[in-house]
UniProtKB/TrEMBL annotation:
GO biological process: cell adhesion; metal ion transport
Organism: Pandoraea terrae
GO CC terms in record: cell envelope
Compartments it resides in: Cell envelope
Protein name stated in the entry: Manganese-binding lipoprotein MntA
Family label: Belongs to the bacterial solute-binding protein 9 family.
UniProt-recorded Gene Ontology molecular function terms: metal ion binding
Gene designation: mntA
């Protein structure tokens, strides 16, 4: 049943628009056999979208940190705790991404299963204020997002064995969409010369994306938006921009744009727009993970072109 749908979508290059990619995830003719959907929760919007892509109509999803909200500095509310305790499976990123997780667990006394979707994956490390730290932003690499989808599929199947086939087929379909996305991204970036593959963003959220597609990302703030850029770090970054000729400069949807605007002004470069880092958006251009990734790649590729 799915082969024809997938082939038609791939032949039409479904990766070219988020709407078609989302359509590829709809499994026609499969209804939820349960009278009550499996109640699950996710820590933030991007992860919630991956869970929804696999769980479909068999789950009732609660996402704690919503679109355009910063999961690094989130503070759990009593209402959020009440929603969480009503769910049976709680999906989190892990690797310190949700710094508030210990407080939430203590306050909620959550008894359901907690699934860390990055478990078993090897994280990258980076320097943050002179210290070697783990980068939690694995979801910025679609290849690693595929591994997260597998973890989600297995956890949902364990909690709802009757949905095994349903979850497996949706997970497979989504993985095909991610494969197409990677292929498309490589084609978009192929014309960009190595010396132009440098991007400035607000915080160090795109390291995995950079490693996958050979892009160097610079940022005044570290892997968490809780860290503050020092005047020395900002001055050093401005010098790097001036000496390397960085042209691709972006704000993020979850951070205050003033720091990037100041750096761009002092370095005499223009801000090219917005990238979506740790959250989906209420804007249609990034309301799903697939759309978010497409927007970011299009924006980055356009800003790095040799003819600018």
């Amino acid at each position: 049943m799915f082969g024809g749908v997938n082939r038609a979508l791939r032949e039409a290059k479904a990766w070219m628009t988020g709407s078609l990619l989302v359509a590829a995830l709809v499994i026609p003719g499969v209804a939820n056999a349960q009278d009550v959907r499996l109640p699950v929760s996710a820590s933030f919007s991007i992860l919630g979208d991956l869970v929804r892509a696999v769980g479909g109509d068999r789950i009732d999803l609660t996402t704690l940190v919503g679109p355009d909200q910063d999961a690094h500095v989130y503070e759990p509310t009593p209402a959020d705790i009440g929603k969480l305790t009503a769910t049976k499976v709680f999906f989190i990123n892990g690797l310190g991404f949700e710094g508030w997780m210990p407080r939430l667990r203590k306050a909620s006394h959550y008894t359901g299963r907690v699934v860390e979707v990055t478990e078993g994956l090897k994280p990258r490390t980076t320097r943050d204020q002179g210290k070697l730290v783990t980068d939690p932003h694995m979801f910025q690499d679609p290849a690693l997002a595929k591994a997260m989808v597998t973890r989600i599929r297995d956890a949902l199947t364990e909690a709802d064995p009757a949905g095994k086939t349903y979850y497996a087929e949706r997970a497979k379909n989504y993985e095909l969409a991610l494969d197409d996305l990677i292929t498309w991204a490589r084609k978009q970036l192929a014309p960009i010369s190595p010396t132009r593959r440098v991007v400035l963003t607000s915080h160090d959220a795109f390291g995995y994306l950079g490693e996958r597609f050979d892009i160097r990302f610079l940022a005044p703030e570290g892997v968490s938006t809780e860290s503050e850029a020092s005047a020395r770090d900002v001055a050093k970054l401005i010098r790097v921009i001036r000496t390397t000729g960085v042209k691709a400069v972006f704000m993020e949807n979850i951070t205050n744009p003033r720091l990037i605007e100041r750096i761009a002004h002092d370095a005499k470069v223009q801000v090219d727009g917005k990238l979506y880092s740790d959250a989906l958006s209420q804007n249609q251009e990034a309301s799903t993970y697939l759309q978010l990734f497409q927007h970011n790649i299009r924006a980055i590729a356009a800003a790095m072109k040799d003819d600018r």
